[in-house]
Each structure stands twice: as C-alpha cells, then as structure tokens.
Amino acid sequence: GRIRTMDHIQSRVESILSTLGLSHVAQTVVGDENLRGVFGGQKRLVTVRDMLTDPNTRYLCLEQITDGLSSTDSLSLVESLKKGCVQRNISGIVSLQQPSDEIIHLFDKLLVLSENGEQVYFGSIDRDALKAICLEDNRRDSDSICDLVLRSNASESLIKKAMTLHRFQQSAAYKILVSELAETKSLGSLALNRDVNTLLPHKNTRPQVGTRFVFSWPPPAEAYFYS
Fold it and tell me: What burial class does residue 83 get, using C-beta atoms within 10 Å of its C-beta: 0-12 exposed, 13-18 middle, 19+ buried?
C-alpha cells in the first residue's frame, strides 16, 4: 500500500477534526464516569473520527447515535457526520428512532421498517409520498414525518398494515427501487462472477425490531449495495 508520512497522517487527522467540529477539544481527554471530558455529542463524534481516519473506510453503519442527546446536540451530530461522509466520499447508513424533520432532511434516502421488520418505505425524503403511503385519505395529517409514520404503524390492524405495504408497492418510489436493485444485481453479478441472490438473506428472514428509520447518503461510485 501507499506509504504515508507522519505529516500526512497528522494533516488528515487535523482535517477530520475540523470537519467534525472537534478542533477546539483536540487536547481534551474523552473522559468516562470518573473523569470529566468532552460532552456526549462530542464523545460520539470521536468514534466517528476514528472511523474516518482509517483510509480504507468506505461505509459507516451507525445505530441510535442520537440516543440521550438533546435535539440541538442530535442535529449538530448528524450535520457533522454528514459533512465528514460527503467530504471523504464515504457512505453513511444510520439507524434512528423518532428523529426530527430537521434531521430527516439531512439525508438522501430513507428506509422505514415496520414493528415486525417489514419494509414500509424506501426512497427519497418525500413527505407527500410518505403521507400517501402511510395515511389513508380520510386520516388527518400529522405535524412531523416521524409522527406521520409512527402513528400510522401503531394504530393500524394487520389488514391496514398490509394495505400500507400495498400502497408502497404501487408507489413511484417502489418502482424506482425495483429498477435500481435490478441494475445493482446485474452489475454485482458481473463484478463477482456469481449470482448476487446467493449473498442475500433468505427472503423469509424477518428481524424483530421496533419501528425504525434508516437513512443513507449516496455510496461511492464503485460501491454496490444489495437489498
């Protein structure tokens, strides 16, 4: 691999610290329950910094990174994370519960899973599309994207949840998803010289999770995503 000098490494670290807004605490200890250090949002960014510093990093998979943080700190954390991913051309895949609209609109793609792990939506951050899929025509709209989806999921019977899934499958977002997956599988099969379907989880496998939002920024051009 390419030999990196200490000056190059130091420059990269300083650049990432600046990107994540951590330069002013660069000389501060991280801390623990016995030693006061950086605050919660900064502490989580330290972990992200370590990931971004690795030159081989191509993807970041982060779960519940805003838990326990204030709305202001949560927004700042995700803004810094996005900035780091975009500047480093790294894909970010983030799982969140009950994010604000401000945070949601920082992402390019949104995946909504139902309480039994079924895909309810995947596509761009389109409030009108989500409303059309998650709410029936006679249902009152809610104040936020998160509330719109959560209230729909919590109050629906199995029949209504099936109808929600059906509305997604009839939507423009679903047609785009199917087209992109077909292209990705075709490219992946050529690159790997094998059927991509053999790499995927069995279709009957259903994770048991609560309603969850999964967000992503675009992957580098050479990356393939399988779903």
Answer: middle
Q: Map residue 71 onto helix, strand or coil.
A: helix
Whole-structure pTM value: 0.63
pLDDT, tens digit (0-9, with 9 covering 90-100), for 80-112: 888 888 887 888 888 887 888 899 888 888 888
CA dihedral 186, 191, 192, 195 (to 10 degrees): 10
Max CA distance (Å), the chain: 64
Closest CA to 126 of 107, 98, 147, 154: 107
At position 78, the amino acid (one-letter code) is V
Instruction: Give the residue, 189 or 18, on which the prediction is more confident.
Output: 18
Residue type, 185: K
Provide CATH 3.40.50.300 ranges for the chain: 6-96
For residue 203, name the pLDDT band (cuts at 50, 70, 90): very low
Among the four given CATH numbers 3.40.190.10, 3.50.50.100, 3.40.50.300, 1.20.1250.20, the one describing domain 6-96: 3.40.50.300
Instruction: Report CA-CA distances (Å) from 171 to 80, 81, 212.
Output: 33, 31, 20
Pairing assessment for the beta strands 59-63 and 91-96 based on DSSP bridges: parallel
Closest CA relative to residue 213, chosen from 93, 54, 41: 93
